């Protein structure tokens, strides 16, 4: 048994999304404010902490409709006859989560309370968890009564003073009423779903089935005995050593802040405590503890005898009064119940050298290692708690009875990367699932299933994860003028469809570089190492807004940018593709050549031919208007290509300007900085360019010389030498790159303005700039 997917509706910015859950590990990735945390909180609150729902968990734009319900109630309350209160107007606005279990035929007996029909054998079973009013009639009466008190108070004040007050009293709306009374009027209820009515998401927007208002909810927790749920949340701190610890709270496996020492005590109480269901191996330890307790009691009696005798001088105890006795109680766990129960050994003891061990308490270790050790220990504790290891198993199934564990262990971890170095993050994500399965009854066996869900902001964590396990959260613009921006979720295993070679290339490439793309606000795809080194300098020197955003500059090597189209389209990233014209001869092999007009030349660049602008003609590309270099998808997403365009330059001071045609980044940079390169000291390609500028004053001859140098030179070495010898701020940015970066900067600014307006107003969607 496992969870196949969940569909979340009307929860914060997740208006309607489907999240596929992988068989083992699922990783939530995406830019800031994309909905990852909302998804984790939704699963936590629907499955674990149902008492933590608040009014801010409702999708913000739904409050307009909910307040309208309240206004209708107040209008209805003034009539002689009122209509019965109905849940139907609420259903489209209530937070809900559909959980779809994949159940095998040999597990049917476990889910008999969830079966849609008696003929059901195996497959998907769905349960809707919905946060809804407990009693609509009671909610209606309480809200109307509270509003009536406000109205009466305002009328009495006006009558007494003759003044009409403008002050707003609680509750001014149904939202304000529920801000204070939500927990007393709402709860999570469960409903059965019908797998035959499942509909696939439409462009990332889930289409959950309707559950009519008259349907009866299930009794109790539908997942009791089926799913063991554990959580490590993002707000896991390490308490100060002076803070008191509560063992009852520590035993709560889904709790928040835990010191490692308190986790150790909690684990001891559940699995190791010899006083609980003792075994033969525990008797020696218990006997030693009891003997120590007797000796300690005797010592206390001797020590307190003078004090007790002094009390007796006050005529207490009398003849009939009970005498004072002192008795201790030593529990095994007391040995761990102190702030230094966990220590880190810096230097080991050595009897030969006469050296004692040197140790530090746990809060003297780095936060990274504290966090790592704590998470690993909690994962082990979750696993052993599920499998009833040690004394927990004895208490759960006394007298040799067989244990009946839930068949599914569902573990949520929020942002495990906190305080961890990059290498430690990578080790953790590779080992976490293995830790949860390290038990003789688990491992590779499939009778009991473990599913791990992790949300992260770390490209290092994403890098070490399987591409198919990634779930990308994409921010979307407001769907209409009365809505707020929402999110959708992309299953990365479905991005490339059946194009296996393209998928393998992109995955291998990302594994060889980095995964920043999944956390960026925008992306710049560049063709070679020279652009990769110099474009970031151009941005820092000239484009402040771009440099302040989360931008990924990805070198894709050669003309392979088009292979990233399915990924870029799925991520919905604003993307600038900086590529080369790559002119080729008109016939035959299309051998690379210096670009010329009127020669029927074609581009060898697949990005230009197959993605944007989908044109192969060099003559067409040279004169292409800016609008045709942009592919717009929606309010928040567009792709623009930037390649070399004609420039009019004076090759010699005072000479007439002539048209020059660059073919690559390097010769475009040369044309824009002729004076600088004529006097630039350097070796290698820089020296050869300097010589070509001195020997060739004709545009065609100079272009041919540049073409020859670039065909045989080392472009990466050229960029490095240029960085060493020249401040990049003094370089004039090639015009085609300037045009592309100015488009990117305007798109980022427009996106920020629209997001700010939608967030602050809640209803305004700015027109496309």
Determine the structural class based on helices, strands and strand pairing.
Answer: alpha/beta
What is the approximate shape?
Answer: globular
The radius of gyration is 35 Å
Q: What is the residue-averaged pLDDT? A: 84
Q: How many domains in all? A: 3
Strand order of the largest sheet: 7-10-11-3-12-13
- The rounded distance between the terminal residues' Cα atoms is 50 Å
Tally of alpha and pi helices: 23
Based on DSSP secondary structure assignment, what is the total number of beta strands? Answer: 22
Main beta sheet strand tally, sense and closure: 6 strands, mixed
Outline of the structure:
The chain is α/β, with parallel strands linked by helices. Helix content is 37%, strand content 17%.
Topology:
Layout: E1 2-11, E2 14-20, E3 25-30, H1 36-47, H2 63-77, E4 96-103, E5 123-133, H3 136-161, H4 174-185, E6 186-192, E7 227-232, H5 247-250, H6 260-271, H7 280-312, E8 343-347, E9 358-361, H8 367-386, H9 391-396, E10 408-414, H10 422-436, E11 449-455, H11 459-463, E12 470-476, E13 486-491, H12 500-512, E14 522-526, H13 529-542, H14 544-548, E15 551-555, H15 565-571, E16 574-578, E17 583-584, E18 602-603, H16 606-610, H17 618-622, E19 630-634, E20 637-642, E21 647-649, E22 658-660, H18 665-672, H19 674-678, H20 684-695, H21 699-712, H22 715-725, H23 735-761
Helix pairs in contact: 2-3, 6-8, 8-10, 13-22, 20-21
